[in-house]
Amino acid sequence: MIVGISADSPSAQDKFKKKYNLPFPLLCDVDRKVAEAYGVLKERNMYGKTVLGIERTTFLIDAAGRIQKIFPKVKVDGHAEEVLAALNE
Questions:
Q1: For 26-40, what is each residue's pLDDT tens digit?
Q2: Alpha carbon of 2 to those of 51, 53, 54, 74, 83: distances in Å?
Q3: Residue 1: CB partners within 8 Å, gap ≥ 6?
Q4: CA 6 to CA 86: how far, in whole Å?
Q5: Which of 77, 66, 54, 64 minimizes the C-alpha distance to 4?
Q6: Tens digit of pLDDT for each residue in 24-74?
Q7: Measured distance CA(63)–CA(80) in Å, rounded
């Protein structure tokens, strides 16, 4: 099962899902508690200021709820293929 999670509002997620015709659910983490729990809330430097931001990360989680693989600092190009290869290992 694929699930996307972001700190965006439900309306922003709905627009994103429709724009890219995503066939999986997007969950809202507006309070960033999930991001914090998974360790992806990171300090970033934007325009000379330090801000907290979410580092785009993919987690492969097995049926028992255990994390099997983490893909940090995800870049969109080629990522789907990388995840599929890991699933087939």
A1: 999 999 999 999 999
A2: 29, 22, 19, 16, 11
A3: 24
A4: 23
A5: 54
A6: 999 999 999 999 999 999 998 889 999 989 999 999 999 999 999 999 999
A7: 20
CB 52 within 8 A of CB 43: yes
Nearest by Cα to 27 from 41, 42, 11, 13: 13
- In order of 20, 63, 72, the CA distances from 69 in angstroms are 26, 13, 10
CB-hemisphere CA count at 13 Å for 51? 8
